[in-house]
Every structure is written in C-alpha cells, then in structure tokens.
Write a structure and sequence with these properties.
single chain, six-stranded antiparallel barrel, six-stranded antiparallel beta barrel, about 25% strand, globular
C-alpha cells in the first residue's frame, strides 16, 4: 500500500500513456497501419524463432510423414495416368492439361511460424512476404490440400486466413460428380467444415472427395478439400448441406505453398472495371 501511495503519480502517468496510445492507433488509420505493420514484423520474427526451434525437434517425424505421403501420391498418380490413358487412348492429354493449369502459377514454399487454432477468426503467419512475391488474395495449400488465402503481406511475412475462419468462403465441387457449392466453417472443430447449396438432385455418396472447382482466381481446379462424412438437409429444405472432413490437418500444419498466379492482376483489373461500369450505369 505504501508503494502504491508513494508512486501513484507514476502509475497514473503510465496508465494515461497507454490510454492515449490506444486512442491514437484505434481512431487514426495511418498510425494504425504503421502499428499493424511494425507489430506484424516483430511478432513474425518471434514466431519464426519459435518455429525454427520446434521444427528442429520434429524433423524426423515430418520427414517420415513426407516420405510416406510421397510414396502414396506417386502410386495414385501412376494409377490415374494409366486409367486415363486406357479410357481416352491418349497418354499425353492429362499431362498437357495439368501443365497448362500449373503454367499460370508460381509456387512459393513457406512455413507456418505462428497462429491460432481454437478461435472463430483463426489466422496464421507464414515466413514469406512481398519480397518473395507473396501478396494478398493468393491461395495457400499444403501437401494434403487447401489451407486458405493470404489476407495481408509485409516484406517478409504474410497473414493467412485459413478455411477454418468464419469469414472464409471457397467455391468447390464434388469430384467426378460435377455438383458444386460453397465451403464454410462455423467454428469449434478445426477438422471439419460444410459445403452449402448442393442441389437436391445431386447424386453422391459418403467418402466422395470435395475439391476446388477453379471458378475463383485464387485456386486452380482439383485442389483437395476433404471427404464427405455426413449429409444434411438445408434449413429451407431446397438443397443439401454436406459435412466434410478436411484433408489438411491444421493442428500439425508446418509447410505450405503459396500459389502465385501470374494472370491474377489482369483478371482482378478486368473484374474491377466491370464492377465500376455497373455502378456508373446504376447511377444514371
């Protein structure tokens, strides 16, 4: 008590300084942006150090998982190539289509160096930024499937909004079925999400794969999303609501790839031009 009485003026001064700083950064966009960028760089560096230490002790397990995964993926690719060649009598068509799709993208490897998992607005930090060619609105994937989209980037770090974020929306389709819907996450379990608006006439079964359909400029078609685990009726009864077990294990997510679309700026500019034209037409 004597200590508080003796130093009350200093404590009051510190409290007022904190309140002033909060008001300054909260109600001034420029100062808030500077604070966000600086804090992001500092926190990113701390996350990077922590991630490097954690990665060092888990390298053996990660390498074993990657080796096993590559083995299974290699087998699946070989089997699918043979099946496709037998069905179409063209052993090069699949390779040409895949090369055409991937030629639009540059893959930037990155590591998740921090983030949250048990909130409704989860965010991840990766150790790549604008200096590496990473910018906002770029898709992020892992060796297993879809991860999310870059929300904001600084010079050497970027913030990723994963699909386990309540504001995330991903257009996807049921593999080999042709029916598409929107992937959403409602919180709590980070291993499942839901595909909304699947039409009632759709025919599919439990265990079918859900993947991206390529309708957006963020993801190419065919990126795994997850497997169908359960089917519900929508609230209005006009469509299905599909529960999906996500392919990406977010609780053990370490290595990711950012998809740098070489043509995204052209498409964004074209879309913005159309939207501006529609707004101008509506005012007339």
């Amino acid at each position: 008590m004597d200590f508080l009485t003796k130093h009350a003026h200093w404590l009051l001064f510190i409290l007022l300084e904190v309140v002033c700083a909060m008001l300054l950064f909260q109600y001034n966009s420029y100062q808030g942006s500077v604070w966000f960028t600086s804090a992001n760089a500092v926190v990113g560096r701390i996350y990077d150090w922590n991630s490097a230490l954690t990665s060092f002790f888990s390298l053996r397990q990660v390498n074993e998982q990657l080796t096993l995964r590559n083995f299974y993926l290699e087998r699946q690719v070989n089997q699918l190539s043979r099946l496709y060649a037998d069905a179409t009598h063209d052993s090069t068509a699949q390779e040409r289509a895949m090369l055409h799709t991937l030629s639009q993208y540059q893959v930037v490897q990155a590591q998740v160096v921090g983030g949250s998992l048990h909130q409704s607005t989860n965010l991840f930090t990766i150790n790549r930024g604008k200096a590496d060619g990473v910018d906002a609105e770029m898709g992020v994937v892992s060796g297993s499937g879809i991860v999310g989209v870059v929300l904001k980037a600084s010079a050497h770090y970027a913030i990723v909004m994963p699909v386990i974020h309540v504001n995330s929306r991903v257009s996807c389709t049921i593999r080999r079925r042709g029916y598409f819907g929107v992937l959403r996450w409602y919180g709590q379990d980070a291993s499942v999400a839901y595909v909304e608006d699947i039409p009632r006439h759709a025919r599919f079964k439990l265990g079918d794969w859900v993947e991206t359909n390529g309708y957006s400029a963020i993801y190419p078609p065919g990126v795994p999303v997850g497997k169908i685990e359960q089917v519900y009726n929508s609230r209005d009864g006009l469509s299905y609501r599909v529960k999906v077990r996500l392919a990406t294990d977010f609780s053990n997510l370490r290595n990711v790839c950012v998809l740098v679309d070489r043509q995204i700026s052209e498409r964004v500019h074209l879309l913005q031009s159309v939207q501006d034209s529609l707004k101008m037409g509506g005012k007339e």
